[in-house]
Amino acid sequence: MAVHELRVSLGDRSYPIVIGAGVLAGNDALARLAQGRQVAVVTNDTVGELYEARLAASLAGAAVCVSIRLPDGEAYKNWASLDRVFDRLLQERFDRQCLLVALGGGVIGDLTGFAASIYQRGVDFVQVPTTLLAQVDSSVGGKTGINHPLGKNMIGAFHQPRLVLADVQTLRTLPARELSAGLAEMIKHGAIADPDYLAGLERDLAALRACDPQALAAAVLRSCEIKAAVVAADEREAGLRATLNFGHTFGHAIEAGLGYGQWLHGEAVGAGMVMAADLSRRLGMLDAAAASRLRETIDAAGLPVRGPAWAPERYVELMGVDKKAQQGTPRFVLLERLGKATLQRVPDAPLRATLLDCTG
Amino acid sequence: MAVHELRVSLGDRSYPIVIGAGVLAGNDALARLAQGRQVAVVTNDTVGELYEARLAASLAGAAVCVSIRLPDGEAYKNWASLDRVFDRLLQERFDRQCLLVALGGGVIGDLTGFAASIYQRGVDFVQVPTTLLAQVDSSVGGKTGINHPLGKNMIGAFHQPRLVLADVQTLRTLPARELSAGLAEMIKHGAIADPDYLAGLERDLAALRACDPQALAAAVLRSCEIKAAVVAADEREAGLRATLNFGHTFGHAIEAGLGYGQWLHGEAVGAGMVMAADLSRRLGMLDAAAASRLRETIDAAGLPVRGPAWAPERYVELMGVDKKAQQGTPRFVLLERLGKATLQRVPDAPLRATLLDCTG
Question: Which position among A324, B104, B138, B279 has the lowest Cβ density within 10 Å, counted as fewest Cβ atoms?
Fold first, then answer.
């Protein structure tokens, strides 16, 4: 079975993404990076039990290799977990030349990447994403961070990995709900940047949901290509990169209002994309058939297509602390057509109409 | 009285340092940066009481301006203080376009700069250093961070300010001991890079210790020029920048062993420089007259010239977690002559001899 490799171009911070079935075991690129260094694998109890042993061959050349297991779940993406990592690294006297390996989903990847970015003012790290969402989203772009009680991902940094290994075999143990959450981000990539990819996802949805490795590897590759192209053009999120937040202004409000962990991030983004498409239609940008087709695709991926039944004022309040906000006024990523996104401020009336029609 | 201005050249992260007596009040560069933005002044109880009001004119054009006062002291350069800053910024709904102003010494500067580097993955900040040490050291170079119970400055980031305002009038309220601690870093700049500057400091020591504004402004300017030149050539501390750590391997060991806050950082660096010069002499690099002259200058600046009376093994152990260490073996910044530094590993025997002779 083919192994895909993609290079994210960011000057001296460029790195490869290796995608395929079984790429975890005996990977040369990881072995070269680990050779002679202090290495810490950061993972959680669930994923560590399933996959940590597969990394052993690649890490055999390390000077020392320790395992740091954190509790599993978004609730632990916080300072206390980060500090457990720092405690261990300092107890083991890890220096600036050490290497952190993030083995797990988005929580582990974001937290480990952030730990790497601020441990001794920055050390190298490798992403080994084991969820579909992490493979297509958080492993590309260098966004790292933790949550704060007053907002998700509010504390963080941009820090690029040296290597990403996306092994689609690890997705077989993923709950169906989490697979769907990953599909949400892939549908998003199609919707903002590539109508052919979106059509391909619609066609292959059954194979993807059944964890067909060829279909998964091809789709993960295309999603990573799209995200990598956007990030390479706009690393610090000045403009273009913000289109990757399609569905996220509404989605973050849903997550914040329900309390993190009630809906998966991808589920909130699923409903958020339906809302953003509806808003695009109301503003005369997207035609009704396209908005409706996107809604059906999101539904067929096993994702929610309506937000929780809150008053529009509640949504607006929750969107006020969104990171894309400029002094309180949120901007929205909207669709001009399927495959083309744009960022703009929105009048109150159509926003309220969307919040009334697409929720409850 | 002349106002000096120096530009730190770091591509699109370049910034000016404005140095002089009275530059805090009604500063145009700060007013331009603050115009229309959400601004938070982060300071401590002591400095805030003395100097925060002087910033009012420069910050009058801000959209909103809040004051965050932290307890005074190195013991508070920790995650708890950082989290107080984040709590307030999120409560006030500060977005990514906000501006943080660090008004205080190194603790406030390092902590506020680090807060700026990781709040919403990075916002702008301005340094207003009010101690001599911060004016010549922590305000140039973009090093930010906090302490960890297992090591000083172990958690941090490189994040450049947009502007530094060094007002030498604020040094009049500085305790003599802290003024001497600042002189330690200035003597270091002369010792590693500029023998003429070192001779000038020796000549002007009395005026500097008496807080003569002209002498202080000229010396702060020269120290900032030296550090800025080193940082511009080597922002990420790969090689040249490490020479700024002259005296710091020993100094950090002293601080760590005594418990932070017993000796001031500059005091530990003072004794550390005497030890590093002694080690340079033993290795046949620095002549005995030069080592002795440096020792006398450090003494005349009101700084300690001997480390605490610990066994060499204790020093070696304490130096093991130094950030310059590579897998446990510390490298030392040594002097080839006054004005020229180099970085190298050192055999055990001369190191032990220095640790026995220069302590107790």
Answer: A324
With tokens 């190195």, the residue in question is B74
Report the C-alpha gap between B218 and A225 in whole angstroms. 54
Q: Which of B121, B236, B326 shows the shortest C-beta gap to A145?
A: B121
Report residue B331 CA to chain centroid gap.
Answer: 21
Closest-CA residue to A230 (of A246, A239, A241, A238): A241
Residue B6 has pLDDT above 50, yes or no: yes
Query: Residues B308-352: pLDDT tens digits?
Result: 999 999 999 998 744 455 555 678 999 999 999 999 889 999 999
Name every residue whose Cβ is closer than 8 Å to that of residue B336 and which is 6 or more positions away in sequence: B280, B285, B286, B342
Residue with tokens 């990075």: B122
Could you read off the pLDDT of A342-356 as tens digits, one per residue? 998 899 999 999 999
The HSE-up count of residue A158 (CA atoms within 13 Å, CB side) is: 11
Cα B33 from Cα B17, distance rounded (Å):
14
Q: Which residues of A touch B323 (CB under 8 A)?
A: 95-96, 120-121
- The string of pLDDT tens digits covering residues A269-309 is 999 999 999 999 999 999 999 999 999 999 999 999 999 99
Dihedral, CA of residue B351, residue B353, residue B359 and residue B360, to nearest 10: 140
* Contact assignment for B157 to A117 by CB distance below 8 Å: yes
Mind listing the pLDDT tens digit for each residue in B213-269? 999 999 999 999 999 888 888 766 667 788 999 999 999 999 989 986 789 989 999
Contact B155 A320 (CB under 8 A): no
Mean pLDDT of B26-49: 96
Q: Find where tokens 């890079």 sit.
A: B193
Write the residue in A79, A90, A117 that is nearest to B151 by C-beta: A90
**Helix/strand/coil (H/E/C) assignment for every residue in chain A:** CCCEEEEECECECCEEEEEECCCCCCCHHHHHHHCCCEEEEEEEHHHHHHHHHHHCCCCCCCCEEEEEEECCCHHHCCHHHHHHHHHHHHHCCCCCCCEEEEEECHHHHHHHHHHHHHECCCCEEEEEECCHHHHHHHCCCCEEEEEECCEEEEEEEECCCCEEEEEHHHHHHCCHHHHHHHHHHHHHHHHHHCHHHHHHHHHHHHHHHCCCHHHHHHHHHHHHHHHHHHHHHCCCCCCHHHHHHCCHHHHHHHHHHHCCCCCCHHHHHHHHHHHHHHHHHHCCCCCHHHHHHHHHHHHHCCCCCCECCCCHHHHHHHHCCCCCCECCECCEEEEEECCEEEEECCCHHHHHHHHHHCEC
Distance from CA of A100 to the nearest CA of B (A): 15
Q: Which domains does chain B have, with CATH numbers?
A: 4-173 (3.40.50.1970), 184-357 (1.20.1090.10)
Flag whether the pTM goes above 0.90: no
3-state SS class at B61: coil
Distance CA A96, CA B322 (A): 10
Q: Decide: A148 and A74 in contact? Cβ < 8 Å.
A: no
- Taking the C-alpha atoms of residue B291 and residue B259, their distance in angstroms, rounded to an integer, is 28
For B296-317, what is each residue's pLDDT tens digit? 999 999 999 999 999 999 999 9
Instruction: Give the integer Cα–Cα distance in Å for B4 and B24.
Output: 13
Q: Which residue of B has its CA nearest to A237?
A: B121
pLDDT at A187: 98
Amino acid at A122: G
Question: Which chain A residues have a beta carbon less than 8 Å from that of B122?
Answer: 157-158, 236
Quick one: average pLDDT of B177-181? 96
Q: Are B115 and B86 in contact (CB under 8 A)?
A: yes
User: Per the CB < 8 Å rule, is A321 touching B63?
Assistant: no
Q: In this structure, what token pair is assigned to residue A275?
A: 């809302």
Nearest alpha-carbon partner for B62 in B97, B93, B101, B31:
B31
User: How many other C-beta atoms lie within 10 A of the C-beta of residue B200?
Assistant: 18
